[in-house]
Write a structure and sequence with these properties.
The complex is a heterodimer of chains A (240) and B (158). With 240 residues, chain A is α+β, with helices and mostly antiparallel strands. Chain A has two domains: 110 residues, Ubiquitin-like (UB roll); 100 residues, no CATH class. Chain A is built from seven helices and eleven strands. In chain A, the strands form three sheets. Chain A has a five-stranded mixed sheet with strand order 2-1-5-3-4, sandwiched between helices. In chain A, strands 8-9-10-11 form a four-stranded antiparallel sheet. Chain A has a two-stranded antiparallel ribbon with strand order 6-7. Chain B has two domains: 57 residues, no CATH class; 81 residues, 3-Layer(aba) Sandwich (Glutaredoxin), CATH 3.40.30. Chain B is built from seven helices and four strands, in the order H-H-H-H-E-H-H-E-E-E-H. In chain B, strand 3 and strand 4 form a beta hairpin. In chain B, helix 1 crosses helix 3 and helix 6 packs across helix 7. In chain B, 29% of the residues are buried. The mean pLDDT of chain B is 89. The chains are: A alpha+beta (240), B alpha+beta (158). At the A-B interface, strand 6 of A face helix 4 of B.
Protein backbone atom coordinates (compact mmCIF):
# COMPACT_ATOMS: atom_id res chain seq x y z
CA UNK A 1 0.00 0.00 0.00
CA UNK A 2 1.01 3.56 -0.51
CA UNK A 3 -0.01 6.62 -2.42
CA UNK A 4 0.20 6.59 -6.20
CA UNK A 5 -0.72 9.05 -8.91
CA UNK A 6 -2.94 8.30 -11.86
CA UNK A 7 -4.71 10.28 -14.54
CA UNK A 8 -8.43 10.12 -15.16
CA UNK A 9 -9.63 11.89 -18.31
CA UNK A 10 -6.38 13.85 -18.36
CA UNK A 11 -6.54 15.13 -14.80
CA UNK A 12 -4.18 13.87 -12.14
CA UNK A 13 -5.42 12.31 -8.89
CA UNK A 14 -3.75 10.53 -6.05
CA UNK A 15 -5.06 7.28 -4.69
CA UNK A 16 -4.02 4.19 -2.78
CA UNK A 17 -2.10 1.60 -4.76
CA UNK A 18 -4.41 -1.21 -5.96
CA UNK A 19 -7.52 0.79 -5.21
CA UNK A 20 -10.12 -0.03 -7.83
CA UNK A 21 -10.49 2.50 -10.64
CA UNK A 22 -14.27 2.66 -10.22
CA UNK A 23 -13.96 3.72 -6.58
CA UNK A 24 -11.40 6.41 -7.37
CA UNK A 25 -13.43 7.76 -10.29
CA UNK A 26 -16.63 7.85 -8.25
CA UNK A 27 -14.90 9.61 -5.37
CA UNK A 28 -13.57 12.25 -7.76
CA UNK A 29 -17.00 12.79 -9.26
CA UNK A 30 -16.76 10.94 -12.55
CA UNK A 31 -19.87 9.19 -13.73
CA UNK A 32 -19.50 5.55 -14.65
CA UNK A 33 -22.67 3.54 -15.12
CA UNK A 34 -22.95 0.24 -13.22
CA UNK A 35 -25.60 -2.41 -12.99
CA UNK A 36 -24.17 -5.26 -10.93
CA UNK A 37 -22.37 -3.09 -8.40
CA UNK A 38 -23.38 -2.71 -4.78
CA UNK A 39 -21.11 -1.43 -2.04
CA UNK A 40 -22.36 -4.10 0.36
CA UNK A 41 -21.21 -7.10 -1.64
CA UNK A 42 -18.11 -8.31 -3.49
CA UNK A 43 -17.53 -7.60 -7.17
CA UNK A 44 -17.66 -9.95 -10.10
CA UNK A 45 -17.64 -7.55 -13.07
CA UNK A 46 -20.61 -9.21 -14.70
CA UNK A 47 -22.65 -6.36 -16.19
CA UNK A 48 -19.71 -4.94 -18.18
CA UNK A 49 -21.20 -1.43 -18.10
CA UNK A 50 -18.41 0.07 -16.00
CA UNK A 51 -15.81 -0.40 -18.75
CA UNK A 52 -13.13 2.26 -19.15
CA UNK A 53 -10.07 2.62 -21.35
CA UNK A 54 -6.81 1.97 -19.52
CA UNK A 55 -3.41 2.99 -20.82
CA UNK A 56 0.02 2.68 -19.22
CA UNK A 57 2.07 4.70 -21.70
CA UNK A 58 1.37 8.08 -23.22
CA UNK A 59 0.25 7.35 -26.77
CA UNK A 60 0.57 3.61 -26.17
CA UNK A 61 -1.93 0.85 -26.64
CA UNK A 62 -5.08 0.99 -24.57
CA UNK A 63 -7.23 -1.76 -23.16
CA UNK A 64 -10.92 -1.81 -22.36
CA UNK A 65 -11.19 -2.99 -18.75
CA UNK A 66 -13.95 -3.25 -16.16
CA UNK A 67 -13.19 -0.42 -13.77
CA UNK A 68 -14.87 -2.09 -10.79
CA UNK A 69 -12.10 -4.72 -10.65
CA UNK A 70 -9.16 -2.85 -12.19
CA UNK A 71 -6.50 -1.95 -9.64
CA UNK A 72 -4.81 1.42 -10.00
CA UNK A 73 -1.07 1.89 -9.96
CA UNK A 74 1.48 4.62 -10.59
CA UNK A 75 1.18 6.15 -14.05
CA UNK A 76 -2.14 4.59 -15.05
CA UNK A 77 -4.14 6.68 -17.51
CA UNK A 78 -7.88 6.14 -17.63
CA UNK A 79 -10.46 7.43 -20.08
CA UNK A 80 -13.99 7.14 -18.72
CA UNK A 81 -15.90 8.51 -21.67
CA UNK A 82 -13.83 8.06 -24.83
CA UNK A 83 -15.20 7.04 -28.21
CA UNK A 84 -14.06 3.45 -27.65
CA UNK A 85 -15.61 3.27 -24.18
CA UNK A 86 -18.91 4.62 -25.41
CA UNK A 87 -18.94 2.13 -28.26
CA UNK A 88 -18.46 -0.83 -25.92
CA UNK A 89 -21.04 0.47 -23.47
CA UNK A 90 -23.49 0.98 -26.31
CA UNK A 91 -23.24 -2.68 -27.34
CA UNK A 92 -23.57 -3.81 -23.72
CA UNK A 93 -26.65 -1.64 -23.35
CA UNK A 94 -28.16 -3.07 -26.53
CA UNK A 95 -27.68 -6.59 -25.18
CA UNK A 96 -29.09 -5.67 -21.77
CA UNK A 97 -32.07 -3.98 -23.41
CA UNK A 98 -32.82 -7.08 -25.45
CA UNK A 99 -33.04 -9.10 -22.26
CA UNK A 100 -34.72 -6.69 -19.91
CA UNK A 101 -36.20 -3.56 -21.54
CA UNK A 102 -38.24 -2.59 -18.45
CA UNK A 103 -35.32 -2.56 -16.03
CA UNK A 104 -35.05 0.54 -13.90
CA UNK A 105 -33.09 3.33 -15.56
CA UNK A 106 -31.91 1.21 -18.46
CA UNK A 107 -33.94 2.92 -21.19
CA UNK A 108 -32.74 6.37 -20.08
CA UNK A 109 -29.12 5.22 -20.01
CA UNK A 110 -29.49 3.63 -23.44
CA UNK A 111 -30.97 6.83 -24.86
CA UNK A 112 -28.02 8.74 -23.44
CA UNK A 113 -25.66 6.45 -25.36
CA UNK A 114 -27.66 6.80 -28.54
CA UNK A 115 -29.12 3.31 -28.68
CA UNK A 116 -32.05 3.49 -31.04
CA UNK A 117 -33.93 0.56 -32.48
CA UNK A 118 -32.49 -2.61 -30.99
CA UNK A 119 -30.95 -4.87 -33.60
CA UNK A 120 -31.00 -7.90 -31.27
CA UNK A 121 -34.74 -8.28 -30.79
CA UNK A 122 -36.47 -9.34 -27.59
CA UNK A 123 -34.85 -12.18 -25.69
CA UNK A 124 -37.29 -13.88 -23.38
CA UNK A 125 -36.04 -17.42 -22.83
CA UNK A 126 -35.00 -16.99 -19.20
CA UNK A 127 -37.04 -14.00 -18.13
CA UNK A 128 -35.35 -10.73 -17.35
CA UNK A 129 -32.28 -12.10 -15.60
CA UNK A 130 -28.97 -10.64 -16.80
CA UNK A 131 -26.95 -13.03 -14.59
CA UNK A 132 -25.36 -10.17 -12.69
CA UNK A 133 -25.24 -12.37 -9.60
CA UNK A 134 -26.19 -9.59 -7.19
CA UNK A 135 -28.86 -11.80 -5.59
CA UNK A 136 -26.43 -14.70 -5.25
CA UNK A 137 -23.78 -12.54 -3.59
CA UNK A 138 -26.32 -10.80 -1.37
CA UNK A 139 -27.73 -14.11 -0.18
CA UNK A 140 -24.23 -15.39 0.53
CA UNK A 141 -22.47 -12.35 1.92
CA UNK A 142 -25.16 -10.20 3.51
CA UNK A 143 -27.85 -12.66 4.52
CA UNK A 144 -25.42 -15.53 5.07
CA UNK A 145 -27.81 -18.22 3.92
CA UNK A 146 -26.59 -19.22 0.44
CA UNK A 147 -29.98 -20.29 -0.80
CA UNK A 148 -29.24 -18.96 -4.29
CA UNK A 149 -26.69 -19.97 -6.86
CA UNK A 150 -26.12 -20.49 -10.55
CA UNK A 151 -27.11 -23.54 -12.49
CA UNK A 152 -25.75 -24.92 -15.78
CA UNK A 153 -23.38 -22.83 -17.88
CA UNK A 154 -23.12 -20.88 -21.10
CA UNK A 155 -26.40 -20.03 -22.77
CA UNK A 156 -28.30 -22.30 -20.38
CA UNK A 157 -27.00 -20.60 -17.25
CA UNK A 158 -29.68 -19.58 -14.81
CA UNK A 159 -29.93 -18.23 -11.33
CA UNK A 160 -32.06 -19.73 -8.59
CA UNK A 161 -32.23 -22.10 -5.64
CA UNK A 162 -30.34 -25.43 -5.77
CA UNK A 163 -31.62 -27.82 -8.46
CA UNK A 164 -34.39 -25.29 -9.27
CA UNK A 165 -36.42 -26.62 -6.37
CA UNK A 166 -37.90 -24.56 -3.54
CA UNK A 167 -34.98 -24.07 -1.17
CA UNK A 168 -35.07 -25.57 2.30
CA UNK A 169 -32.60 -23.01 3.65
CA UNK A 170 -34.26 -19.86 2.25
CA UNK A 171 -35.57 -17.64 5.04
CA UNK A 172 -37.86 -15.62 2.79
CA UNK A 173 -36.17 -12.32 3.63
CA UNK A 174 -36.62 -11.00 0.09
CA UNK A 175 -33.18 -9.39 -0.05
CA UNK A 176 -32.63 -10.89 -3.51
CA UNK A 177 -35.89 -9.35 -4.66
CA UNK A 178 -34.87 -5.89 -3.44
CA UNK A 179 -31.36 -6.03 -4.84
CA UNK A 180 -32.32 -7.38 -8.30
CA UNK A 181 -31.70 -4.57 -10.81
CA UNK A 182 -34.04 -5.91 -13.47
CA UNK A 183 -37.12 -7.15 -11.64
CA UNK A 184 -36.50 -10.76 -12.64
CA UNK A 185 -37.15 -12.08 -9.14
CA UNK A 186 -40.81 -12.13 -8.24
CA UNK A 187 -42.05 -11.83 -4.69
CA UNK A 188 -45.74 -11.55 -3.86
CA UNK A 189 -47.41 -10.90 -0.54
CA UNK A 190 -51.01 -11.67 0.29
CA UNK A 191 -52.38 -11.57 3.81
CA UNK A 192 -50.04 -13.57 6.04
CA UNK A 193 -48.23 -15.24 3.14
CA UNK A 194 -45.17 -14.30 1.13
CA UNK A 195 -44.24 -16.20 -2.01
CA UNK A 196 -40.73 -16.18 -3.42
CA UNK A 197 -38.71 -18.69 -5.50
CA UNK A 198 -41.61 -21.14 -5.48
CA UNK A 199 -41.90 -21.32 -1.73
CA UNK A 200 -44.55 -19.85 0.54
CA UNK A 201 -43.63 -18.28 3.86
CA UNK A 202 -45.87 -17.54 6.82
CA UNK A 203 -45.52 -13.91 7.91
CA UNK A 204 -45.38 -12.78 11.53
CA UNK A 205 -47.54 -9.98 12.89
CA UNK A 206 -45.96 -7.02 14.62
CA UNK A 207 -46.78 -7.49 18.29
CA UNK A 208 -47.68 -3.80 18.64
CA UNK A 209 -49.37 -2.53 15.48
CA UNK A 210 -50.50 -5.91 14.19
CA UNK A 211 -49.36 -5.68 10.57
CA UNK A 212 -47.57 -8.56 8.88
CA UNK A 213 -43.98 -7.47 8.50
CA UNK A 214 -41.51 -10.37 8.22
CA UNK A 215 -41.44 -14.12 7.67
CA UNK A 216 -41.14 -16.26 10.77
CA UNK A 217 -38.03 -18.01 9.43
CA UNK A 218 -36.26 -14.69 8.93
CA UNK A 219 -36.87 -13.64 12.54
CA UNK A 220 -35.67 -17.01 13.77
CA UNK A 221 -32.57 -16.68 11.59
CA UNK A 222 -31.78 -13.21 12.94
CA UNK A 223 -32.32 -14.55 16.44
CA UNK A 224 -29.92 -17.45 15.87
CA UNK A 225 -27.28 -15.22 14.26
CA UNK A 226 -27.37 -12.18 16.53
CA UNK A 227 -28.91 -13.46 19.74
CA UNK A 228 -31.45 -10.63 19.80
CA UNK A 229 -34.47 -11.92 21.77
CA UNK A 230 -37.51 -13.01 19.78
CA UNK A 231 -39.89 -10.64 21.61
CA UNK A 232 -37.74 -7.68 20.57
CA UNK A 233 -37.65 -8.95 17.00
CA UNK A 234 -41.42 -9.25 16.89
CA UNK A 235 -41.76 -5.48 16.61
CA UNK A 236 -41.88 -4.02 13.10
CA UNK A 237 -39.46 -1.27 12.05
CA UNK A 238 -42.03 1.47 12.73
CA UNK A 239 -42.85 0.31 16.27
CA UNK A 240 -39.27 -0.26 17.43
CA UNK B 1 -34.88 -45.98 -13.27
CA UNK B 2 -33.86 -44.29 -10.04
CA UNK B 3 -31.10 -46.21 -8.34
CA UNK B 4 -31.40 -47.34 -4.76
CA UNK B 5 -28.74 -45.36 -2.99
CA UNK B 6 -26.54 -46.95 -0.38
CA UNK B 7 -25.61 -44.02 1.85
CA UNK B 8 -22.88 -46.08 3.51
CA UNK B 9 -21.15 -46.25 0.16
CA UNK B 10 -21.47 -42.49 -0.25
CA UNK B 11 -20.00 -42.02 3.21
CA UNK B 12 -17.06 -44.21 2.23
CA UNK B 13 -16.43 -42.08 -0.84
CA UNK B 14 -16.50 -38.95 1.30
CA UNK B 15 -14.14 -40.52 3.81
CA UNK B 16 -11.72 -41.64 1.10
CA UNK B 17 -11.29 -37.98 0.13
CA UNK B 18 -10.84 -36.86 3.71
CA UNK B 19 -14.27 -35.16 3.79
CA UNK B 20 -12.58 -32.12 2.25
CA UNK B 21 -15.00 -29.93 0.22
CA UNK B 22 -12.11 -29.16 -2.16
CA UNK B 23 -12.53 -32.71 -3.48
CA UNK B 24 -16.21 -32.32 -4.31
CA UNK B 25 -15.65 -33.10 -8.00
CA UNK B 26 -13.71 -36.36 -7.50
CA UNK B 27 -16.31 -37.41 -4.93
CA UNK B 28 -19.03 -36.83 -7.49
CA UNK B 29 -17.02 -38.76 -10.07
CA UNK B 30 -16.76 -41.72 -7.68
CA UNK B 31 -20.48 -41.62 -7.01
CA UNK B 32 -21.27 -41.40 -10.69
CA UNK B 33 -18.93 -44.35 -11.40
CA UNK B 34 -21.10 -46.33 -9.00
CA UNK B 35 -24.57 -45.36 -10.22
CA UNK B 36 -23.91 -44.00 -13.73
CA UNK B 37 -25.52 -40.75 -12.61
CA UNK B 38 -25.73 -38.56 -9.51
CA UNK B 39 -28.72 -39.63 -7.43
CA UNK B 40 -30.23 -36.84 -5.34
CA UNK B 41 -30.01 -38.70 -2.00
CA UNK B 42 -26.26 -39.06 -2.57
CA UNK B 43 -25.90 -35.35 -3.38
CA UNK B 44 -27.89 -34.42 -0.29
CA UNK B 45 -25.55 -36.62 1.73
CA UNK B 46 -22.53 -34.79 0.25
CA UNK B 47 -24.05 -31.48 1.26
CA UNK B 48 -24.68 -32.69 4.82
CA UNK B 49 -21.33 -34.38 5.40
CA UNK B 50 -19.17 -31.68 3.80
CA UNK B 51 -21.18 -28.91 5.44
CA UNK B 52 -21.46 -26.89 2.23
CA UNK B 53 -24.57 -25.16 0.83
CA UNK B 54 -26.74 -27.24 -1.46
CA UNK B 55 -26.37 -24.52 -4.10
CA UNK B 56 -22.65 -25.33 -4.31
CA UNK B 57 -23.46 -28.97 -5.02
CA UNK B 58 -26.08 -27.92 -7.56
CA UNK B 59 -23.67 -25.51 -9.26
CA UNK B 60 -20.94 -28.11 -9.70
CA UNK B 61 -23.27 -30.95 -10.66
CA UNK B 62 -24.96 -28.90 -13.39
CA UNK B 63 -21.83 -27.10 -14.64
CA UNK B 64 -19.93 -30.14 -15.92
CA UNK B 65 -21.25 -32.10 -18.85
CA UNK B 66 -19.83 -35.36 -17.50
CA UNK B 67 -22.22 -35.27 -14.56
CA UNK B 68 -25.76 -36.41 -15.10
CA UNK B 69 -28.67 -35.84 -12.76
CA UNK B 70 -30.83 -38.19 -14.78
CA UNK B 71 -30.40 -41.97 -14.52
CA UNK B 72 -28.37 -43.38 -17.38
CA UNK B 73 -28.34 -46.80 -18.98
CA UNK B 74 -25.96 -49.61 -18.11
CA UNK B 75 -24.19 -49.09 -21.42
CA UNK B 76 -23.47 -45.53 -22.48
CA UNK B 77 -23.05 -45.27 -26.23
CA UNK B 78 -20.96 -42.33 -27.37
CA UNK B 79 -21.10 -41.64 -31.07
CA UNK B 80 -18.18 -39.45 -32.11
CA UNK B 81 -19.28 -36.54 -34.29
CA UNK B 82 -15.89 -34.87 -34.60
CA UNK B 83 -14.76 -33.60 -37.98
CA UNK B 84 -13.18 -36.85 -39.22
CA UNK B 85 -16.07 -39.00 -38.01
CA UNK B 86 -18.59 -36.53 -39.36
CA UNK B 87 -17.04 -36.79 -42.84
CA UNK B 88 -17.10 -40.57 -42.64
CA UNK B 89 -20.80 -40.67 -41.84
CA UNK B 90 -21.20 -40.16 -38.08
CA UNK B 91 -24.63 -38.51 -38.47
CA UNK B 92 -25.87 -41.67 -40.22
CA UNK B 93 -24.41 -43.83 -37.43
CA UNK B 94 -26.20 -41.73 -34.83
CA UNK B 95 -29.42 -42.05 -36.84
CA UNK B 96 -29.03 -45.82 -36.96
CA UNK B 97 -28.61 -46.00 -33.20
CA UNK B 98 -31.66 -43.80 -32.71
CA UNK B 99 -33.72 -46.00 -35.03
CA UNK B 100 -32.52 -49.30 -33.59
CA UNK B 101 -32.93 -48.25 -29.97
CA UNK B 102 -36.04 -46.14 -30.47
CA UNK B 103 -34.58 -43.22 -28.50
CA UNK B 104 -33.31 -39.72 -29.20
CA UNK B 105 -29.81 -38.49 -28.49
CA UNK B 106 -29.37 -38.20 -24.69
CA UNK B 107 -32.27 -40.61 -24.24
CA UNK B 108 -32.24 -43.89 -22.34
CA UNK B 109 -34.02 -47.08 -23.39
CA UNK B 110 -36.97 -48.20 -21.29
CA UNK B 111 -35.16 -51.33 -20.11
CA UNK B 112 -32.40 -49.15 -18.70
CA UNK B 113 -29.69 -50.80 -20.80
CA UNK B 114 -28.59 -48.11 -23.25
CA UNK B 115 -28.06 -44.37 -23.19
CA UNK B 116 -27.20 -42.70 -26.47
CA UNK B 117 -25.07 -39.60 -26.65
CA UNK B 118 -22.97 -37.78 -29.19
CA UNK B 119 -19.52 -36.43 -28.36
CA UNK B 120 -17.30 -33.99 -30.14
CA UNK B 121 -14.09 -35.93 -30.63
CA UNK B 122 -12.79 -39.12 -29.06
CA UNK B 123 -9.31 -38.54 -30.46
CA UNK B 124 -9.28 -41.72 -32.51
CA UNK B 125 -9.79 -40.17 -35.93
CA UNK B 126 -7.90 -42.98 -37.73
CA UNK B 127 -10.72 -45.31 -36.69
CA UNK B 128 -13.47 -42.97 -37.93
CA UNK B 129 -16.35 -43.26 -37.54
CA UNK B 130 -15.84 -44.22 -33.90
CA UNK B 131 -18.36 -45.37 -31.33
CA UNK B 132 -17.50 -45.91 -27.70
CA UNK B 133 -19.65 -48.12 -25.50
CA UNK B 134 -18.63 -47.60 -21.87
CA UNK B 135 -14.88 -48.27 -22.13
CA UNK B 136 -14.89 -50.31 -25.38
CA UNK B 137 -13.94 -48.54 -28.59
CA UNK B 138 -15.53 -49.66 -31.85
CA UNK B 139 -13.84 -48.36 -35.00
CA UNK B 140 -14.96 -48.04 -38.60
CA UNK B 141 -18.58 -48.47 -37.61
CA UNK B 142 -21.12 -48.79 -40.40
CA UNK B 143 -24.88 -48.80 -40.22
CA UNK B 144 -25.10 -52.58 -40.38
CA UNK B 145 -22.52 -52.90 -37.60
CA UNK B 146 -24.74 -50.81 -35.33
CA UNK B 147 -27.27 -53.58 -34.93
CA UNK B 148 -24.54 -56.11 -34.11
CA UNK B 149 -23.05 -53.85 -31.46
CA UNK B 150 -26.41 -53.37 -29.77
CA UNK B 151 -27.17 -57.09 -29.87
CA UNK B 152 -23.77 -57.99 -28.44
CA UNK B 153 -24.28 -55.78 -25.40
CA UNK B 154 -27.93 -56.71 -24.92
CA UNK B 155 -26.93 -60.41 -24.89
CA UNK B 156 -24.33 -59.87 -22.17
CA UNK B 157 -25.08 -61.23 -18.75
CA UNK B 158 -25.55 -58.84 -15.93
Amino acid sequence: MGKIKLKIDGREFSAEKDEYVLDIAKREGFEIPTYCHNDQVSREARCRLCVVEARWQEGGHSRIVTSCLYPADEGLMVETNSEQVRLVRRVVLELLLARTPEAKGLAELAAEYGVGKNRFGADTDFGKCILCGLCVRTCREVVGVEALGFRMRGVLKQVGPAFAEPSSVCIGCGACYFVCPTGHIIMTEKGDERKIWGRTFKMEKCSKCGRYFAPKYQLEWINSQTGVAMDRLSLCQDCK
Amino acid sequence: MQAKVNLKLVDEVIKSWGADPAFLIPMMQDIQAQYNYLPRPALNRLQEKLNIPLTRVSEVATFYKTFSLKPKGKYIIQVCTGTACHLRGAPRIADSFMRELGIEVNGTTKNGLFTLSTVNCLGACALAPVVKVNEDVHGQVSSDKVKKIIEAYAARKK
